[in-house]
Design a protein that fits this description.
Elements lengths: L2 H11 L14 E2 L3 H19 L3 E2 L3 H10 L12 H9 L10 H7 L3 H7 L17 H15 L7 E5 L5 H10 L2 E6 L2 H10 L5 E5 L10 E7 L10 H11 E14 L8 H6 L9 H8 L4 E7 L4 H14 L1 H6 L4 H19 L3 E9 L12
Parallel strand pairs: 3-4, 3-6, 4-5, 6-7
Antiparallel strand pairs: 1-2, 7-9, 8-9
Helix pairs in contact: 2-15, 3-15, 10-12, 13-15
Length: 372
């Protein structure tokens, strides 16, 4: 065994992962170029070499869980991973001019993919599994949880920032009889979402959040969009919500969060999945809302993203013959599998969180009654 291979083996052993072992969580090398690539390329190389078929693992989610719990990512730090960090310090990667890039890169991959991957309402955020037995119920319960937290009443006007395919807007309009304006940077989402919401008081717009001019909304919600805002724009985002929200209104922020401050997401995710993405920390969110809002409730149910992501992967596998027929190739499948299952492992390891935070402008007299 050469030195490079031995080094990789010894690193994996720190997480109790066997090289070419026989357990579902063990890493099986298919191409010996993997060893030098992973030591020089770190997280980016790990994802790319999986896409290229240089290694395999039956349970990537468990492998990532074990690696993160053992803190392996801090044992391989190639110089090239510093580049995204340096860029993020110097530039605002989430400007208006770049806002639509994430829509084109990720959300415009094709509605047929997301129809087969997601639940019947096409909700692309974490489900709520407290009482749910399947994905459809977990998402239905999450949407209802959000409505109850915002204390929606018939006739209210609601702004949905990052509305996706309009799944939440449709639910709120149908079940709580509110009027909804939703904004997204994805043309594909607008096209399908507008059809899904036909006949309802729902107005979906292809628009950056900074360009929303309508004011006086009773409620504002943002489900799974804040991850694309970027730390340089957090304060601006909160000021936009403040401008749009009625003085007695409520704002609910639903976002993935990180335990520690990072200047960028990992380089593989930045390159292949969410260009310019960034996970906020509690401190960053609190700093952005200081003097703007009063925090009424903070709910963490990040563990629920693990079964959500697993269910999405099961749906992709179930419908893969159809997706392959639509033109999605094997490299895309491996990229998508790595994305979904490595994310599940991160939430399982508690490296990633899912927060729902409720804000008021001046504080609710008598206090806010938390809903779970």
């Amino acid at each position: 065994m050469n030195k490079v291979k031995r080094t990789v083996r010894d690193i994996l052993k720190l997480a109790e992962i066997e090289l070419n072992g026989d357990r579902p969580c063990d890493l099986i090398v298919k191409d010996d170029r993997f060893y030098s690539a992973i030591l020089s390329g770190g997280a980016l190389a790990l994802g790319e070499t999986y896409m290229d078929g240089w290694w395999d693992c039956e349970c990537i989610d468990q492998l990532v869980y074990m690696a993160l719990r053992a803190d392996l990512e801090h044992r391989i730090k190639p110089l090239k991973v510093l580049l995204p960090v340096m860029i993020s310090k110097l530039a605002n990667r989430q400007t208006r001019a770049r806002a639509f890039r994430i829509g084109e890169h990720h959300y415009d991959l094709g509605n047929e993919l997301y129809k087969r991957m997601l639940d019947k309402r096409m909700i692309y955020t974490c489900g709520y599994w407290k009482r749910a037995a399947d994905l459809n119920q977990a998402q239905e319960d999450k949407l209802d949880l959000v409505c109850k937290k915002m204390q929606l009443q018939p006739g209210m006007k609601l702004l949905d920032i990052g509305c996706g395919w309009g799944g939440f807007a449709k639910f709120a309009a149908e079940k709580y009889r509110v009027e909804v304006v939703g904004v997204t940077v994805s043309g594909e989402q607008i096209e399908l979402g507008s059809k899904m919401c036909e006949g309802l008081p729902v107005d979906l717009r292809l628009q950056d959040y900074r360009d929303v001019q309508t004011c006086g909304f009773d409620r504002v919600v943002s489900l799974g969009m804040f991850e694309h805002v970027g730390v340089k724009n957090y304060r601006t985002f909160m000021q936009v919500v403040d401008r749009c929200l009625h003085k007695d209104g409520l704002f609910l922020l639903h976002t993935i969060g990180a335990n520690t401050t990072k200047e960028s997401i990992d380089p593989w995710t930045d390159k292949y999945i969410f260009p310019g993405g960034m996970l906020p920390t509690q401190r960053q969110i609190t700093h952005a809302t200081e003097g703007v809002f009063v925090m009424e409730d903070w709910h963490n149910f990040g563990v629920d993203y693990d079964p959500t992501l697993t269910a999405w992967m099961e749906n992709v596998d179930r419908h893969w013959p159809e997706l392959a027929g639509l033109g999605y190739d094997q490299r895309f499948y491996r990229m998508w599998r790595y994305f979904l299952l490595s994310s599940a492992g991160s939430f399982r390891a508690r490296r990633s969180q899912l927060w729902q935070v409720v804000y008021s402008k001046k504080g609710i007299g008598g206090g806010y009654q938390a809903v779970r």
